[in-house]
Structure formats: C-alpha cells, structure tokens
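re the bet — no i am not wrong, look at it urself. input seq straight from the record:
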Amino acid sequence: MTGRGEEGDRPDLDSHAPSLAPETQVEVLGHNDAMRTRQAVGRPTKFTPLVAERLEWLASQGIERNAAARMVGIGRTTLYRWLNDPRPAFRSWRAHMRQAEASAEVAVTANIVRRSKTDWRAGYAWLKARYPERWDPRFVGHKSRN
C-alpha cells in the first residue's frame, strides 16, 4: 500500500469532470502566441483549456482551491499566480472561477437553510458562520476593531 488508500477510497472525479466543449473554451495564452512576439523563455504554460475547465468544474463542486490545484497537477502558487494575472485570458477565466465558487456556496447555503427547518443545529451553525458577531459565543460582546 502506498499510503494513499485503496483504489476505491477516492472518488473518481475525472469521470464526472466535463470534457472540453468548443462553446465553453476559455481563451488561453499559447506557446505559439509567445513565439510570434518574442523568444519564448522557460517551460510552456500548464494553463490549457482543459486545466482551466477542470479547475472551474472542481470549484463548482465546492472543492477547495489548494485541493483543486493538486488534482489538476499544479501547485497552489501557480493557481494563485493565474488568479492574479492581469492578462485578458486569465481575467476571463478568473470570472468563470468566481462564478463557479459562488454557485457551490449558494448550493451549500440553500441545503443548510433547507435542513434548518427540521434540525435547529443546522440553522444555528449557519447563523454562527454568517453572523458571528451576533451568534457565535466567542464573538458576542467583543467589539470589532473595524
């Protein structure tokens, strides 16, 4: 055993990940574009349409950014560099990522609110997370520095 668990322990997210449809492709900076304007230096980018699409899909499933980066074979520093890159291709992709993360948050929040109708603890946990200054005992009575 390699310490990673048995084959069946890990969900097969690749089988559920979207294939790259032409109408959903993200504009990506390619190696050929760099060659036209200047001599390319360093390794070719790992930012491909497939990697961008998979990161968006993982974000839409609620997967945390660092885990998503590992799942597509990049480091967390690379992911955050892409998210902060001002070039148009990355700006467009960043908007898609934010939308995917927001949709996951909405789905989880809706589920918690739905569960709170039958289980008060779900509602209390949601209130503590959403309004800690009013509902979390660790913060009640403490003044914010803002």
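see?? The mean pLDDT is 81. told u. also The radius of gyration is 20 Å. so pay up
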